Fold these 4 entries.
Entry 1:
Amino acid sequence: MNNLILVRHGQSKFNLERRFTGFYDVDLTSKGESEAKYAGELIKKLNIKFDAYFTSELKRASDTLRIILKVLNISNAKINKAWELNERHYGGLTGLNKDETIKKYGIHQVKIWRRSFDTPPPKMEPDHPFKKEIKSEISGESLKDTFERVVPYFDKKIKPLILSKKNIIIVFHGNSCRALLMKILNISKKKIVDFEIPTGNPLLIKF
């Protein structure tokens, strides 16, 4: 038997402020750092020897993994960073407060943008205030778009390790995690709408 542990990063500054984050690179809050530490403590209790570590290119995820590894007393670990594991790109919604967006567009529309499988948010226009800081040709993604980059990366880089009985940790984001769990747990497009991933809470999958 081998193990795959999935962790959504700890609380970020934009999580605290209830802002759409996406590809924008924000830091963890002090609570997020505590969540990461607690995640590490939970993982440590499992007494698993890990073989590989994966995270996104965004610092809220890589910092969470760094804190977890510190709790596990693992140094000099090879960290596999991949943009394919990034949060979905929230397009023109990036940086907007969720409550204010609900007031403007209605809760039904915002839920569709946040949770539906194949409806993308409005595109990020060239004059968007965060456009210069987000170095990407992508202007917005649905969960389907996220699925179509996360799952092929998983199949190519991570699944072979699972098949060879390796133990793996992936620290990434709410939507990239939802996309991967659709694949692994065979969650339907309909059910994924109501599927929520809490921050800093390890999910253990045994093979």
Entry 2:
Amino acid sequence: MSKNILAVFAHPDDCELKAFGTLRKYQDLGYNVFLLIACCGSGGISVQDQEQKNINVVQENRISETEKALENYNFNIKVLNYNDGNIFLSRDLIIDIEKVVKKIMPEIIITHFYDIMGVDHQDHASVSKATINVASRCSFVNKILLCEPLMTLRSSFTPNVFVDITSHFEEKIEALQKHNSQHGRFYLERIYQENKASFYAGSASYDDLKAAKKYEAFQLIFEKF
């Protein structure tokens, strides 16, 4: 029987930012990787830039960037048709995610952390809650992992799973560089990614920090053996 892992995210680039190395590591373990993205990311630019620089993001470009970022890794990608910035926890969102989950029957689900402090993107919280709602009702799901929010130290996120992604870190950086429409975002820059990944390495083990290893971190909210 096939081993499947499903990552459910709100926007293009969320996967690459939050869980790319971990998904690649699961691939190494023989898992098929599936990615569900709730929206096309057409709102992936600040209102200020839209008004002052007359810049718009074409949604097809953002999906194309994700496809290029992941094209060498055999990720199965599906995109829903929700509006960027206006994803709300609803019956429709739960049903759309549930259809995908029941078709794939993943052992493991990764999604956003639902930040109750309001410092993370509102779309992330909605997608997270809907995904957890679905996953919690599926007996074939053995593990649910929540990714770190952007403003980790201002949220209630408590990482308790640390994944060594050292062997896939350069791949992650290359994947992030495919998101040209998001150029200038600090969290896409190498220095930010290196420092964050090193911080989590040190959180897992001081020896790993000294060895210059790189980690991703998650909050485990459910696991069964």
Entry 3:
Amino acid sequence: MSRRSSKRAEQATAVIPFRAIADATYDWESWHGTDGRLIWVNPAVERLTGYSVAECHAMEDYPLALVLPEDRVAIAAILAAAREGSSGNDAEFRIQHRDGSMKWAAISWQPMSMPQQGHLGFRTSVRDTTERRRLRDQLRLHAEHLQQLVQERTARIQQLERHRRKIEKLAALGQLAAGVAHEINNPLAGLRNAFELIKADLHPQHPHFELLELIDREIERVGAIVHQMYQLYGRAPQRATEFDLAQTVREVVDLLSRGARKRGVSLQRETAENLPPVRLPEGEVKQVLYNLIQNAVQASPAGQTVRIRVAGDRDEIAVIVEDRGPGIPDDVLPRIFDPFFSTKTDDVHAGMGLGLSVSRSVIEALGGRIEVDSRPARGSTFTAIFPTRAVASQEETGDADTQPEFENPDR
């Protein structure tokens, strides 16, 4: 027997008393000689790798053959250090199972020695950490998700704070606007009455009669602005009545058709069949429709058509107003319902930017909503969705005879 074989036999004999204990160990245990070759491995190797003890002893490159190829360089470095007498703990790597699956594991290594024999080699202990790894990854994902939720909640709080400040600002502005509207309304009524008397005394052939017509239109425009302020900030709910919404749409379209023709814009109306009647404050519905259709006409270039479609079911009826104007830029779209915000800055006859604010305020009070779809250079679509019945507070309050007046700007 050679000296090396004799020494290996002595090493094996020295560890025999410990094999009964090591064979029952749950972790994958291996004992290596001073040259790094395998002396003993416990049966747990088959549970972790699918390879038997005998197959492991037959491997020339044990345990590297059982390691995922991407991790073999790291494990080879650990084994080389172990042969030199180093120790280490809990170095993670991946096991290549016989069935092709992969498991995570952690290896620990220590040198072995006995008083008479001296250095005998080293031992390795491999523990299955797949479940630990899974839980760790799951915890990491939960932590990332929690961090994302915190960021989203923080952003939401900041958004709500900005919204609160905006509401406070608008509330203060609303009080001011309502006060101004109230103060303007009375002298405006006096001016209108006095002007009517002056106008009645002048013959239509008078050289300055056209100026009177201009003054008349401007007084009506101021009156409309004051009325919109009341609608937005001091509106009194009207009593709901039952009516045909499609007929109301027809009346508003007829009212605006002459002004549309002057601009070279045509109005096209389409109505679905068998629409149910609605029970809403008709005057407020007309206010919303008038604002949306008038905006579409003003946004449309000459030669284009504004389509007004009416469709719905027993719960909701939608009035869809579609134009082929320049559209609304993405950075402007979130602001179009803000009071006093207007994109028609180059139109001297444009109002104060209250139409959409009033419309949304009115329709939301009824339990409906306005939806917007707009693309630059492709036009805009405003959809007013009315419930077939107003909310209870709208049906039970208000004055049935209170209806807003709609002045034809082209009269």
Entry 4:
Amino acid sequence: MSALTPTLPEALVILEQSRHLGVVTCCPERVLSANDAFLRMIGFTREELDAGLVDWRTITLPEYLVRDEQAIHELRDFGVCVPFEKEYLLRDGTRLPVLLGAVRHSLEPLEWVCWVTDLSAHNERENAEARSHQLAEELKSELRGANLISEINTRLLSKASVPELLTEILDAAIELTQASGGTVLLAVGKKHQMVAHRGFSREFVEFFESIHKNTH
């Protein structure tokens, strides 16, 4: 090992001073030590930690305990575990998403050192970006609809007959809703007459007309 490479204890001293990265020493039963950053994440005091009241299993949501057990097997067999995401359940009932990795500190008794990254800010940023993208798409769609309506009004002014007008309205409705087809029905008493259609076969139109022609 190079003289410039810090040993695990020296590296821990450096990491434990981090204001954002949680550094925790654990055994299968509880948290043995933790830096201030981790205690802030989970909402415990150093007095509670020193009294042995911080149990990593208790604050872990049940659905993640199987992954934790897998990580412990990896630590026992290989000395490290593959980093994974999990969630802690805080005292106020909120969930704290974290990214967690660990290296084995000792085998007998089994102890390990974890580094824990709070993912809540990252997830909130991703959610905000997704919502912003959604709003932008909705705005684009609304502007497109407004432009189409303006174009439709201009086109309708040039139509000289009712059938032309109805067909133009149907085409506009299909374009606005991005539908594959549509019809315009005219109510005549108790009957309905198809006065415009798009996207339907001749057989369907004839079948529709035959039904409503025989309806009393």
